[in-house]
Structures are given as structure tokens and as C-alpha cells.
Amino acid sequence: MSTPRYAIGIDLGTTHCALAYVDIGASDGETTRYGVLEIPQLTAPGAVETQPLLPSFLYLPHEAELAAGDLNLPWSGAQDFAVGEFARSRGALTPIRLVSSAKSWLCHAGVDRRAAILPFDAPPEVARISPLDASTRYLAHLRQAWDHAHPEAPFDQQDVTVTIPASFDPAARDLTAEAARTAGYHNLTLLEEPQAALYHWIQGSNGGWRKAVKPGDIILVIDVGGGTSDFSLIAVLEREGNLELHRVAVGDHILLGGDNMDLTLAHVVARKLAADGKTLDPWQMRALTYACRAAKETLLSDATLQAQSIVVPSRGSKLIGGSIRTELTQEEVRATILEGFFPQVDAATRPASRARAGLTQLGLPYAQDAGVTRHLAALLGRQAGATAELEGFASQVDVDASFLHPTAVLFNGGVFKSSILSERTLDTLNSWLSAEQAEPARELAGADMDLAVARGAAYYGYVRRGQGVRIRGGTARAYYVAVESSMPAIPGMAPPVQALCVAPFGMEEGIETDLLAQEFGLVVGEPVHMRFFGSSVRRQDQLGTLLDFWQPDELQELGEIQATLPAEGRGIGEIVQVKLRAVASETGTLELTAVATRGGAHWKVEFDVRGTA
Amino acid sequence: MTQQTPQSNPSFFQRIPLAFTAFFQVLFAKMPPPVAEAPAAVAPVLLKEATPDAALQLLGLLQKEARLIDFTQENLSNYSDADIGGAARVVHEGCAKVLREHFTITPVRPEPEGSRIALPDGFDASAIRLTGNVVGQAPFKGSLNHRGWRATETRLPKLTASHDVTVLAQAEVEL
To answer: Hey, which CATH number is domain A258-341, 3.90.640.10, 3.20.20.140, 3.40.50.450, 3.40.50.150?
Structure first.
């Protein structure tokens, strides 16, 4: 492969995608030359515009719905779907043909992510696509947009970094990498979004970051985007005179973001209108959501304003006669957004969760508690001991602390364009800290809420080539497979399960574990399913550690994993003894391999169990 | 709702459509500045003909974002100023969005309005209009009444060959 000219960073977001790049040759040390790709996309039938963000929406039109050529792009005339702005606006009117939040589906272990299930509520005649397909199409659109703008530097010869939530499990990481490969990405690395945001902050400081943080700092990255909330904790330590960054913990996957907030406000206003006997159709509801977003930002940025007028335009051509006027008040915004999503709770609060009805979940598992600060309290409480074994931190660990004490906060995501929300979050955190006599955390300034992740990812692609600081930390979880205990079965009780550690916490890329001592019998030709667990707190477990007991919140069950031994050279039904080995790949995925005890043949263990069909 | 706007004296909101009409005349007519005394024709002057496509495309955008055609097609006499004001918010926000997204507009003169400025010999007469006591020789000294606007950049969507720009807004049928 020829040496790449650009390090490309792609933010594959739940609601928006973006592409940024660093010109490797024109950059030197911590001074980088970067750009953001203006992405051509359909904005109306037959109209193509460039925008820095590509909305992550896909529209599957009816064959009679559009005229010939309406879906043409500068590089393609053969596409029978639309992605981007037009998909979003048209899809809002015809939701049964709109694919949205594909990324959230990609990490939803309760569904077959390769099965054509989206749009989820489409009638049978709509040809659906899989969450994997949708992600592939967004990524392919970005590749084609790049190749269209940079014919001199083909995409597949550049260094590409795609970002994923820190909370993505191995299956979702695998699927993202697969989508990228299918979309024609060759030199691919995955990077966690909160890390990308921090890389962007480092890049933006032009070397000044070394003065802004000091050894012993714990940086909390709070990333609340359109559809998800993602947290990471990154410790600063000093080794041989150099500052090092270690990602010590990540939060759970929380489907809660800015879109939920705007929609909640729209419902507050719609209820007011309903009380006056005015009902809104879905089109008007969408217009109301946009209007609420704008009014919310104005009200939150100026506390002296009492109310903002809101006009929902008529759907017909009688604009003046048919429009509905109402207002959003300061009180409503504060009660709904500040108290609903960013309540000032105390550090011991935990998010409320209801037991799910039924075993299979249909639809996306949205967060049941809307309080971002409550989810944050849960993370910090769970990670109270995250730095206990980190070099240089042992002396400053406060054994009485009920939660991990961050010393600095970096905000990211469109939600925090409103400084009131970042201030509220910081104030809440600082009230927890002062209750435990700790210093208040400071905000790391200078973020670019919309493009930080893409730009940080491009910068990461650049520093990976040997220039500048890198965040270390490896895998943020330890992984386990369930092994049935050899205890005798007791009638009326499920057979007890033990958890066998197959990949310890903090495996850095390129690291390969030893073969596990434990052997498994795999039946040739038959898929073997294993229950799979992850833990974001059990840092001390070694490869092969067998757990008999664990606290319910220590281990989380992930989707089942599956190994199938092909019948080549063996009789179907024959049992082969295998051992497991884990590899943290350079791409950023985890690979589990089953290795035959005799002969050394090996097979990949799939994290994502395919549908039986 | 019953309040009737006096017809003799157009209200603020009734003047809005008027302003847009003027805006479009300026934006699209692309006619040479009016010449006070036409000299005796020596050679025929070729007038540039504006293509309607870009104008229609912009009209389509203003309808989509600002509902401008809907707004100007309605009879204001049936509505109170409060109702018109509500609709004007939609129109104002939408027009601002279209101008912001598709044009870069900067003042022709950076000085604050009301300040005294001097125009040297050979100033750009197509960008600056002299009014009042227009006599004598350059440099001309005068007071800046309006800073002027200049579109320094235009970014209209690119259209496929088959796109029909005469459809300013599609009819919408819900199934």
C-alpha cells in the first residue's frame, strides 16, 4: 500500500455523520492541517447540496413516489434510496419508509442485526434493510463523497478512523468494522467517541494541553449526542517525564440524547394546545419539535426571557389563517429540560429501572430514566475504585470516597451547545465533590460540539503514525463465557452458572492472550451457543479466572456468542476439544478464536449470532 | 380576529410583501442601472437575459423554508395584525435561513450608516448610488444613508437534468 496522504476521521453518529481529515504531509508534530469534508447529499428530489453533516437517515421511496433522476447523486444515478437531509425531511412525513437510529439497532443484541428489519414498523410491501446495511450505506456515501472531492487521493488509500460509542460491545464493534469493510474501507481503525473528543481538545490546544492538565487528573468526558449518552474517564499520569493518558472506565450504553429532549418539549407544548382543542398531525408535530428546539436554545441562554413565541405553520397553503400560535415559557423549559434531564440529584442517586415485560424486547431499548445526571452518578459510583491500581494514583485514592472524583470535565455533543446544560451538569458534579470535601472539577474549554469527534478521529489517525500523545487503556471491560457448574442439579432451580474470564480488562491492541486452560467440546457442524458477559469493574480478573458469585451489577449479560465448526475433514456430530484465545485486534475489535487442542486448527467465534433463517 | 386593519394606511405587515417584491426586482431583474438620459443610439446595446432557473430555484427554496408564496398569496385584509405577526415569524425565520445557507451577504460599505464618507474619482458607480445634490467633481463627500448589500458568494443546490424548477412547491396528497 502506498503511504496515505490523509488521515480521515469519520463520526458515524446516531443522528449525524461527519468526515474530517488531517493532511499528514502538511502537518508537523502537534501543528496539524485539517479540513472538514462538505458532503454532497440530496436535500430535495433532484437537488444536491453540500453540508458538513450528513443526517444518518435513509429513505426507501415507493417506485411511483419520485420522478426519474430525483435520486441522482454526482457520482451515481442508480441508487434507489436516499441518505442525508432529504431522507430525513421526506421520512418525517412518511415514517414507514424511513430508517433512523440504525446505529442504536446495531448494538441492540435482542435482534438479528443482519436481518432486514428496518424500518421497524414498515408494512410488508416495503423492502426492508438490515441495521448493518444501513450503516454500510452511510459509510459508502461518505467514501463516494470523498472520492468525488479528492480524485487525487483515493479513499481506499487513506488512513481511516471510524468512531463508535465507548459503550459498544464486541458484537457492535465487529458489525461496525464489517459495515466499513463492505463499504470499501481498507485501512480501518475504530476509536471510541469520547476519546476522539479528547483528541480533538488536545489538537485544538496546539500543545497547550500539557499545561492544562497535570498528573493525577481524572478527566470525565460527557458526550450527549442526538441519540445517545456516552461517558468515559481518562486518567493523566506521568511516566519517564512524559504525560500519559489512560482511559480507565467507560459508561453503559444509554439511548438518551438531544432528540429526546426536543421531543419531550414538543409534547409539553402539544398538550397545552390539546387543552385548547387544537390537535396536531405528525407533520405539525415535527414542525413543532423544530420550533421548540430553537425556542429552547433561546430561553436557556437568557434566563430573563419569560417566553418565546412558537408558530406551527399550517400544512395547507393558508399560512396566516391555518398556522397555530402558542408559546414556550421559561418555566416549562426549566422544568422539562433542566429538572427532567439534568436534575440536581445527590451522588448516591441511581437511575430508576423497571423490569422489562417479557423476554424479547421489540423496538429499541431506550433509557428508562431520562436523568443524565443520575446515569452519571451511577457510573462514578460504580467506578469508585477505577484508579486504585493505576501508577501514581494509589496515594491519592480516598478510601472514604463513595464515587470516583473527576478533576476535569470535557463536554461534547450537540446538547451542550447550550452552556446552561453543561453548567448544570458541572454544578451537580461539583456539589457531589464538595459533599466529600474534594476540589471542584474544572471544565476543559474549547470544544466544537458538532465536529469534535470527526476531527479528533482524524487527529488520532495522524498521531497513530507516531506524532503526538495517545490515549492508552485497552479494552474497557473484561469478558466472560458462562460455564455450567458441575454441581448436581437441584429440582426447581436453574443450574448454577459460573463465569470464565476469556479476556481480561485493559487488553491493548495487538495483545493476544494465552490459550485458556479450560477445554470446551464443540460438536462438528452444529453451532454452539454460549452465554457471554462483560464487566466494566472487575479489573483484577485474570485470563481463566472462574467466578462462582458476582454482584448483579458487576457482570452484564451481552448477546450470545456462537462457534460453528465446519465439517471439513470431520464427521458431523463428532466432538472436538477446543480452547479459547482472545485477541485485541489493531482495528479495535475483540476476536475470540476456538483452537483445536489437537492439530491446532482454529475458527472464529462470532459475537453476533446470525438469525436461524 | 374581528379587528380590521385600516386599508388606507398599510400596516407594517402589509408592507412586507411589498418589500419582497422590491427585493426580487433587485435580485433578478439584473437590468442595468436606469439611465437618466438615453444617448442617441449609435450601436444596439445587448441586454443580458437572466435565465429563469436560478430565480425559480430560489423561489422554491423560499417557499419551502419560509412559505413565502403562501404568505404573499393570502389576502391580509381578512386577518388581524397578531395573526399576520405569527405567520411573519415563519416567513422571517425561513427567509433568514435561506439567505444564510445559500448566500454570503456583506455590506457594500463597512462604515456605520450616518457617517460622512468620501468617494474618490473612479468609484464603482454600480455599487454606490449618488442621490441629492449630485453636482461637481470627485471626490464626492456625502452621508452614508444605506450601507448596501453585496452577495459575495452564492451556493444554490445543484439540480439533476430532469428536475422541473417551475414546480415551486409540490402538491401534497396524503394516502
So the answer is: 3.90.640.10
A193-256+364-453 maps to CATH 3.30.420.40: yes
* pLDDT tens digits along A349-403: 888 875 444 334 457 777 888 899 999 999 999 998 888 777 777 666 667 788 9
B160 has a chain A CB within 8 A of its CB:
yes
Q: Is B101 helix (H, G, I), strand (E, B) or coil?
A: helix
Q: What is the sign of the dihedral through the CA atoms of A63, A67, A71 and A77?
A: positive
Set of cell numbers at residue A536: 466494566
All structural domains of chain A with their residue ranges: 6-190, 193-256+364-453, 258-341, 478-605
Residue A482, C-alpha cell as written in the block? 458462562
**Domain count for chain B:** 2
Distance from CA of B140 to the nearest CA of A (A): 44
Closest Cα in chain B, distance from residue A324 (Å): 8
d(CA B45, CA A402): 85
* Complex prediction ipTM: 0.73
* Vertex B166: Cα angle to B162 and B171 (nearest 5): 95
Work out the angle at residue A331's Cα, subtended by the Cα atoms of residues B65 and A430, and round it to the nearest 5 degrees: 105
Among A171, A44, A55, A32, CA closest to A105: A171
Instruction: Give tens-digit pLDDT for A243-281.
Output: 889 999 999 888 888 888 988 999 999 999 999 888 888
Range of the domain at B115: 109-147
**What CATH fold (topology level) applies to the domain A6-190?**
Nucleotidyltransferase; domain 5 (3.30.420)
Yes or no: say if A596 and A577 are a contact pair by the CB < 8 Å rule: yes
B67 in A contact zone (CB under 8 Å):
yes
Burial grade of B166 (CB within 10 A; 0-12, 13-18, 19 or more): exposed
Residue % of chain A over a pLDDT of 90: 39
Could you tell me if B103 and B113 lie in one domain? no
Same domain, B25 and B69: yes
Residue contacts between A and B (CB atoms, under 8 Å): 77
